[in-house]
Amino acid sequence: MAVAFVGGALLGAVFGELLRAVSEAKDKAVMFKDLLEQLESTLQNSTPMIKEIEKLNQVLDLPKHETDTLIEMMRRGEHLVHKCSRVKWNCFKRYDYAKKIIKLDRSIDTFFRTYIPLQQTRDNRVIMVDLKEVHMMVKRLSGNDRTSWMFNQVGVAGACSAPDPPPVTPGLDVPLQELKLELFKDGRQVIVVSAPGGYGKTTLVKKLCKDDQVLGKFKDNIFFVTVSQTPNVKGIVQKVYQHKGYAVPEFQTDEDAINDLERLLKPIRPEAILLVLDDVWSGSESLLQKFKFQLPYYKILVTSRSVFPQFGSGYDLKPLNDEAARTLFRYSANLQDGNSYIPDENLVNKILRACKGCPLALTVVGGSLCGKHPAIWQKRVKEWTQDVSVFHSNKEILSCLERSLDALNNEVKECYMDLCSFPEDQRIPITALVDMWMELYELVDELFAIANLHELSNLNLANCVATRKYASDDSCYNDHFVMQHDLLRELAIYQSTLEPIKQRKRLIIDTSGNNFPEWWMDQKQHPLNASLLSISTDETFSSNWYDMEAPEVKVVVLNVRTKKYTLPKFLEKMDKLKVMIVTNYGFFPAELSNIQVFGALSNLKRIRLEHVSLPSLTTVRMKHLQNVSLVMCNVDQVVQNSTFHFSDAFPNLLEIDIDYCNDLIELPDGLCDIVSIKKLRITNCHKLSALPEGIGKLVNLQMLTLASCTDLSALPDTIGNLSNLNFLDISECLNIQELPERIGELCSLKTLCLKGCSMFELPSSILNLENLEVVKCDEETAYQWEYFQLGQAKFRIEVIQEDINLYWLHNPHL
C-alpha cells in the first residue's frame, strides 16, 4: 500500500520498504513491539509529507543532498529493523538497538516536521531572487528600445506600503472616524488633511491606512508616498511601479510619468484606489492636479501644513484635547505607571498649557523630562512659561522644542544637529552616522556613537527603525536607520544658521538646479570654518561647481539625485577631510566621475558610497583609508580591473562593507593582499558565486560576514588559515552545501551563524573548535548541532526565529 502511491520514485520506494519492514517486525520482535509501533505511527503520519515532497520535486529542483540524507536514514532504519527481528531475548544488544530505534523515530519525525516549511520558505526566497533574472531575460529577448529602458530596475512589492502608526495615539479615534466619512463620500476625489507641523497629520493618515474598513475597501491598492518640500513626480510614479512589483521605468519628463501612472492604474478598476501624498507643501496645487485621473473609486488623500481651497473644504486636524494631551505627555515622560515622583501636579498642567495640544511638542518635552529631578522640571516650566504663551504657529512650536534640547549634553546635542545633513523624509543609515561621529567627535569606540543615538531616540528627537528583526552580528547596523520629523530637522537647520556663515560648525546647502546660495559666490565669506559640509542637489543639477575654501571640514555629505555626478574639485583642498558620504536618492545608479579627488585627500579614513556606479580606480591611492562601505553600487569596473593593485592603493584598510551590490560576481584576488583587513562584510550580493582561494592570506581577519549571498556555493578550504577569525556568518547562503573540513582549524572562532542555511552534513572537525561559544541557526537545523553537543562540545545553540519579509531583497534605502 505504501509503495503504490509513489510509483517508482526512489524516495517513495525506500519509504515504503521501511514501513513494510516495521509493520512485519512489530509482531516478531516482541521486545521492541512498543517502539516499533511508535515508529510505524510516525511513518504513517509522514505519508502526506512524502506525497508533498514528490509533488515539489515535479516542479522544483529540490536540494538533492537533503532527500539523499532522508533516503540513507531510511535504508539504515530498514536494516536496523531486520536486525531487531533476529535479536534473541537475552542478547546484550537489545538496549543498543532500542536506543537506535528511538533515535530513528525522532530523526524521521523532525525531518518531516521541518523539511516542507523550510523548503517552501527557501523556494520563495530563491524565486524572488530569480525575479530580476526573468525580467532581464525578457529585456534581452525583446530587442525593443522601449522594453530596454523599462527593465532597468525590477520592482519589489511593498515600496509604497503605509508605515505603522506609533503604539500610543490618544485623541485620534474621533478624527479617524470623521476622516473616514470624508474619504467614503461620493463625489470628492481629493481630501486634504491640514494642520500646523507636529499636530499628527501623518500619524492620523497612517492609522487610517491600517483601519479594517479602509483596508476592506481599498485592499492592496493603497499607495503611501512622502512628497516633501521638493516634489519629485517621476520618483513618486516610480515608487508606485515598484510597489506593484513591476519593472521601474526611467521617465524622460514628468508628463511621461503621469501618463504612465494613469495607464498603470486603469486596469485596477473597478477596485478602489487610494493615493496618499504625505507632507505636501504650500504652492503644490499644480502637483495635486497632475495626479487627478478620471477613474471611478479613485481617491487622493493629502497631508499638508497648508490648505488648498480649490480642492474643497478639506479636513482641519485640531490640537489634542486636555485628556488626550495628558495621556500622551505621561506616556512620553514615562509617568503612565504612576510610580515616578513629580513634586507638583501643577507642573504637568503648566506644561500641557504651554504645549497647547501639539503632539510633537508633548512627545519631545515629555521625553526631555523623563527621569529628571523635580528641580529640573521646575526650571524648565519657568523657562517655558516666561517665553511661550500659546502655540499657533510653527515658529512658536520650534521655540518650545528648542527648550527641550537643554536636556542634552553638548556632544549629544551636536549629534542631533548633524541629522539635518541628510535630506528631509529620508531614512538615515545608522552606519553613516557612526562614520561621521567617530571622526567629528574623536570617539574611541563605535558604541559611544550608538549610545548617543539611543539617547536621541529616548528623548523622542529621532526614531530608530530596524528593517530586519534579526541581526547575526550585534555590532552590525546595516539594517538600522533613523527617521526624524521634518519639524525637528527644521529646528536643527534653524539653529545651524544662527551664527555668521564663516563661524558656522556645519554648512547645510540645499540647491535647486544650479542656484547656489549667494554667500557661496561671495569670496569675502571664504575661508569657511565649518567642520561638516552637506550639499543636496536635485535632478536638474549639472555638476558645475563654484569654488569653495573650507580647510577645517572633516566630514562631507553629498546627497545626489542625478544619473551623472561629478565630485567637486574643491574637495582636494580639504586637508582635514576624514569622512566622505555620497548617497544617490534617485531610482537609478549615479555615474560618479572625478573620483581621483579621493586620492588627493591625505587624511581620508572613511568612505561610504550608496547607489552609484564606480569607475575604474586605476589612479586612486588612499594610504590612510580604513573603512569602505559600498551599498547598492555598481562595482564591476573596479572588480574587473586586473591591473589595479589593491594592497598598494589601500595598504591600511581595516573594514570593507559591501551590501546589495548585484553585479558583484566574484571578489578580486588582489583584495586578499590587503592583510590589514579585520572585518569583511559582504551581504545581499545575490550573484556572488565564489570567494578567492587567496582569502586565507587575510591573517588578521576577525569578522567575516557573507549573509544572503544566495549564489555562493562553498567556502574555500583556505579559510582554515584565518587563525584570528572569531565571527563567521553565512546566514541565508542557500546554495552552500557543506562546510569545509578545515573549518575546524579556526582556533579563535567564537560565533558561527547559519540562519536560513540548508541542512547539510557537518564535518567532524567541528569538534576541534574549542573556543566556539555560540551557534546561531534555525530550529530546523538545530538538531544537527545537538549531536555535537553530545560529543562534549561546549558551545550553546541559539535558535533564531524566522523573520520573513522582503527587506533582504528590497532596496532599503529608498
From TrEMBL:
Signal sequence extent: 1-16
GO BP annotations listed: defense response
InterPro entries xrefs: Apaf_helical, LRR_dom_sf, LRR_R13L4/SHOC2-like, NB-ARC, P-loop_NTPase, Powdery_mildew-R_dom, WH-like_DNA-bd_sf
Annotated family: Belongs to the disease resistance NB-LRR family.
RPW8 domain span: 1-150
GO molecular function, one term: ADP binding
PROSITE patterns for this protein: RPW8
SUPFAM superfamilies: P-loop containing nucleoside triphosphate hydrolases, RNI-like
Keywords: Plant defense, Repeat, Signal
Record flagged with keyword Disulfide bond: no
Record bears the keyword Signal: yes
Protein name (database record): RPW8 domain-containing protein
PANTHER family tied to this protein: PLANT BROAD-SPECTRUM MILDEW RESISTANCE PROTEIN RPW8, RPW8 DOMAIN-CONTAINING PROTEIN
A Pfam family that the UniProt record links to this protein: RPW8
